[in-house]
């Protein structure tokens, strides 16, 4: 079974450049870094918060969830670090998988009290479904484990459930989508709806941390 999934993983990575499409060459390049999540619409958002400039922002608030390792998780997961990078990905998403090795390295390189990465697997649900759907979910769960093992992206990965869907669904039209959150689960900086190299992410992370430290002074 695992050998079959590894072959599928290789096929996804090879085919990754074919995700999405556009009339303009530059737009094609950007779309190749993400994959549409066709089931998700902006109406999925539970409520909209705004910053001082009137822009929509995310505040996670209270929630209960489950990790891929079957552990309970709540909003307290964000309290472990000054800055959390919430990386929303899917097992079918080539660009997601391509960036995960770099994300795993970054998570190990930073002081965990200062920065951490948390994954959210958008096609693995923790709530019981019909027998047919549950079978697909379990297959996706096994695929996710293989991907994480292969890329060494061994940080905590949350499973999508209804409360998380209501809070984040409208921001998940494309995967990967990455959101930065402070220790209270409030959005910091921009939302990124494309994959990036390790070096690009490091520059972004350091920039967000610098802005946070400047605001504290």
Task: Describe this structure as you would to a colleague.
The chain is α+β, with helices and mostly antiparallel strands and 217 residues long. It has helices spanning 2-14, 25-31, 94-109, 131-151, 162-168, 198-216, and strands at residues 35-36, 49-50, 56-57, 64-67, 72-74, 83-89, 115-125, 157-160, 174-175, 177-182, 187-192. The protein has a single domain (2-216), classed as Glutaredoxin, CATH 3.40.30. The protein contains six helices and eleven strands. A seven-stranded mixed beta sheet has the order 5-4-8-7-6-10-11. It has a two-stranded antiparallel sheet with strand order 1-9. It has a two-stranded antiparallel ribbon with strand order 2-3. It is globular. The termini are far apart. This is Thioredoxin domain-containing protein.
Structural class, from secondary structure content? alpha+beta
Order of helices and strands: HHEEEEEEHEHEHEEEH
- The rough form would be described as globular
- How are the strands of the biggest sheet laid out side by side? 5-4-8-7-6-10-11
Please give the alpha-carbon distance between the first and last residues: 54 Å
Number of helices: 6
Number of domains: 1
Which homologous superfamily in CATH is the superfamily? Glutaredoxin
The Rg value, from CA coordinates, equals 17 Å
GO molecular function, one term: oxidoreductase activity
Pfam families: AhpC-TSA
Domain Thioredoxin: 29-210
Organism: Blautia hydrogenotrophica (strain DSM 10507 / JCM 14656 / S5a33) (Ruminococcus hydrogenotrophicus)
